């Protein structure tokens, strides 16, 4: 987090004509400081940007001093890290061929899954490969992460004259390791990161006496900040103030970084929640691909959508995945992480919420017996686990790392990890819970009946209900056997045993020169799956 | 100006229990940097403040880092140069006796004329002494000037995150050398002091595209800034947005510096006008006492008041005094100052208004024959001059330094020095012009008939219609003769000759121990007046 914020402070974003400007831009910027990295990306077909990281903060200050405002009588001369590189008449064209510039990436994808995602999935070796591929192709990448921190920096910078300690931090999917390309940017604005006063200090800042209660004050402050960013900050548009929600937010688009943003205040638990999810993601390489696949499935099945309602949220889904992985002995309980915390891990958020847990995962003792299931096995088992889960009497507790008796009436009960008395999934109604279970059962069934798959929607494609258009119907050989017994899906037996899956199939299609993108000319090679014994215990 | 702004950047204002805290405060602050100067003042009977100037900007940064916010969950943690010095329990009381601290002034008067102003005037030696005394006791002093620049700095600082080049400059009476204690603080906010773009720079700041026309944009920006200062900035209260005036302004009180402020934008000619008035004030020591006296007279006679209307403004009155002094060969015409300007003096304000004139008065050639009239003579002559001025056909032009034919219909026409096509006194109606002339005539009459003065309202007291309450009626001896022939007042003769005034009087009163403030126990010593030949030419 602090590395990323520091990076953002040393970065500027510069609009250019195209990636070909990078040599000239590098040459120009190098007068002012040492260019560390350059990232190029596009918005639409026409807008090209280069994000430049400098070596030192003073390099950025030098760049700022050397940059100009134009038409100051018409435009508000706002200072921000967003610039454009103008063409000057009669400039000498230098020959930059073979010049070694630190352009890390050209045309970075910062927006959404690649257009040919389905074809990529189709070409994969196995479901596990598909999951890895889906994760790698849709997860937030380096350039995308930098743009998020730079967007936060813009807001922070503009308020720094009033609130010298102000911080604007990305939280949620942008930083928890589960972020997708194109996902919204959640930001939390803290006027002052240290709640504690310095009792040693005899000099106290004068502040404004406020007659408003806290909430009204927050709403008023957010209204003013919304007006500031709406009218002053370049690139920001469509500012909406949603100040009467439980957590008041300001929504806006930052068109230069192509991000939809939600800015809130006094939301420090969210920051620690992001840390927790990040840490769980770091503990095992299978965590994030599994989360990505489950979220994609839920979106395709319309179990989730972008609006709040009685359906499950991505956050709740993520907790379901983590909880499931705790049952598989892949992830430790939060209680375990809390027990291992030392004094450097102590974090108390607004409202005295204790967010203390072990941050340094190297201090986590190695489990004696590791679960070595592959991604496909874990995914299938995930669907089976939740299609059988007794939501009516059990609650999901990441703290305990096992199901607990439900503490209160609610269709689904997922304990908030930091405030176990709060239910993260309170919004879900019976109908949505039933849909979730049915779709999980269908998904499990799909993998069981994989033998019947058509070639153009095998594996995840089938799970997502996506078909590839092929000119020639591919031939699949050696279809896989059923992965699980059907009985496992429809009974509440305590133990579900997976059976060996022989996913030996090859597939080929003739290339058609007119439809190169859709042609498939690759031999699929069978992949051996290790036998996995899946055991699910419902602890009572 | 830049020296004052730099001083403000190195200053903080600290509320203390009383001036006795200065030793302890000095001791405490000296840990963080070198204290250059300390100024103490009070607001009302209870609020004590010490303004501290540090040696370096980094000292203030150190002070800021060492200062604390309290109750951050309730108060907005705004950073500003306004602090308070809290008492800590169990502190060790040090002995500060004889410690040499740079406390320049204790209980500086920053608000208004002293309570015993009339008594001070009463005790003066002569009308000229009264004028000097009035000027010295009511002019803006060092502490007051510093507070004005610090108040400007507060606004500037809070916007500096958005607009890195923003400047908030005092203008008008706070800086033109004609400022009175307690006068309003006029501020002009410039987003960017350099209107010209840097054509060499290839990097251009992104700015917000504005669909608004200029004026609507300025109003919107000022509305947002008004909300910022209203809600965030400590000490600021009673914010009023007057955005539909010809020059939109934000009015507010800064209660910590005890100032009523008017903030405007895009008002650069005002800054240069302040420079011009300042420069005229520097050219001769008699300029400012004369302006102060004329303004006080106008206020007492209700020729001016705090609200805009058909009456003459202080600014117009000031121009009348300067113009009159041009007629007396004491001040040069603006045309002369423009002719002497070199390339460093070139200033072009918003709207291409040329505000170029000589800034370095040492380059002004010495006049061969100096007018050496004393203040009393100049004052009397001022009244005579304007009671006879032909406002119906003549206009006042400081550029020409002489009356010009009136270019347009208007009761009174005073050319704006920088935009001679504009009439500064357009607002004055016939009735107010007549009142002005009548009161000027009465004032001249009063000095002519000074022989009849009562002891308790002699000189300026009489002019201001103020009487001293005395326990013992003082005895005046050797009353002055008439200063001017009465015919001079009531005829439009081209020449007015003053006659010798023998203002030889002595006055004494017994002190009464119960009314020390009102007792007079001083021998007035007659002051010789030089014979002055007053000659007024009406150039046609």
From TrEMBL, chains A, B:
Keyword annotations: Magnesium, Metal-binding, Transferase
Entry superkingdom: Eukaryota
Compositional bias ranges of the Polar residues kind: 505-518
Chain ranges of the PAP-associated domain: 377-408
InterPro entries membership: MTPAP-like_central, NT_sf, PAP_assoc, RL
Stretches for region Disordered: 501-540
Cofactor(s) recorded in Swiss-Prot or TrEMBL: Mn(2+); Mg(2+)
RL domain mapped to chain residues: 3-42
Residues covered by the Poly(A) RNA polymerase mitochondrial-like central palm domain: 128-281
Gene3D superfamilies: 1.10.1410.10, Beta Polymerase, domain 2
Signal peptide: none
A Pfam family reported for this protein in Swiss-Prot or TrEMBL: RL
PANTHER family with a match to the protein in the record: POLY A POLYMERASE CID PAP -RELATED, POLY(A) RNA POLYMERASE, MITOCHONDRIAL
Name used for this protein in its record: Poly(A) RNA polymerase, mitochondrial isoform X2
Annotated source species: Neodiprion lecontei (Redheaded pine sawfly)
């Amino acid at each position: 987090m602090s590395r990323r914020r520091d990076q953002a402070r040393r970065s500027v974003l510069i609009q250019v004509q195209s990636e070909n400007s990078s040599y000239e831009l590098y040459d120009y910027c190098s007068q002012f400081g040492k260019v560390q990295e350059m990232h190029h990306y596009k918005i639409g077909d026409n807008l090209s940007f280069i994000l430049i990281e400098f070596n030192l903060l003073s390099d950025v200050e030098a760049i700022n001093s050397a940059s100009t405002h134009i038409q100051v009588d018409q435009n508000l001369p706002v200072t921000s890290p967003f610039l454009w590189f103008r063409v000057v008449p009669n400039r000498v064209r230098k020959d930059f061929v073979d010049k070694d510039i630190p352009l890390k990436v050209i045309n970075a994808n910062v927006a959404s899954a690649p257009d040919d995602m389905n074809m990529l999935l189709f070409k994969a070796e196995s479901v596990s490969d598909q999951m890895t591929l889906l994760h790698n192709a849709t997860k937030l990448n380096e350039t995308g992460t930098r743009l998020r921190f730079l967007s936060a920096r813009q807001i922070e910078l503009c308020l720094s004259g009033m609130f010298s300690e102000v911080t604007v931090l990305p939280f949620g999917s942008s930083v928890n390791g589960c972020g997708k390309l194109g996902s919204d940017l959640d930001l939390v604005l803290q006027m002052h990161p240290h709640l504690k006063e310095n009792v040693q200090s005899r000099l106290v800042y004068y502040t404004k006496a406020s007659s408003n209660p806290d909430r009204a004050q927050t709403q008023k402050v957010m209204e003013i900040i919304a007006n500031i960013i709406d009218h002053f900050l370049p690139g920001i548009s469509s500012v909406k103030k949603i100040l009467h929600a439980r957590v008041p937010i300001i929504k806006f688009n930052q068109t230069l970084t192509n991000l939809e943003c939600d800015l809130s205040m006094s939301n420090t638990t969210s920051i620690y929640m992001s840390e927790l999810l990040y840490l769980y993601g770091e503990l095992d390489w299978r965590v994030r691909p599994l989360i990505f696949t489950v979220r994609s499935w839920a979106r395709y099945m319309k179990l989730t959508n972008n609006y709040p309602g009685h359906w499950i949220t991505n956050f709740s889904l993520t907790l379901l995945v983590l909880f499931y992985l705790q049952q598989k002995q892949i992830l430790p309980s939060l209680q375990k992480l809390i027990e291992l915390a030392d004094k450097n891990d102590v974090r108390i958020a607004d409202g005295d919420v204790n967010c203390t847990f072990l941050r340094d995962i190297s201090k986590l003792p190695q489990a004696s017996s590791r679960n070595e299931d592959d991604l496909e096995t874990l995914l299938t088992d995930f669907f089976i686990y939740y299609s059988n889960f007794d939501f009516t009497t059990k609650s999901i507790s990441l703290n305990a790392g096992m199901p607990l008796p439900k503490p209160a009436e609610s269709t689904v009960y997922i304990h908030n990890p930091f405030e176990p008395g709060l239910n993260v999934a309170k919004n879900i109604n019976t109908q949505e819970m039933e849909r979730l279970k049915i779709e999980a059962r269908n998904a499990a069934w799909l993998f069981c009946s994989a033998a019947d798959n058509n070639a153009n929607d095998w594996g995840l494609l089938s799970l997502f209900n996506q078909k590839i258009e092929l000119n020639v119907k591919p031939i699949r050989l050696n279809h896989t056997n059923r992965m699980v017994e059907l009985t496992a899906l429809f009974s509440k037996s305590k133990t579900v045993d997976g059976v060996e899956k022989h996913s030996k199939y090859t597939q080929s299609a003739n290339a058609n020169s007119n439809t190169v993108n859709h042609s498939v000319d690759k031999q699929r090679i069978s992949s051996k799956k290790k036998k996995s014994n899946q055991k699910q215990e419902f602890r009572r």
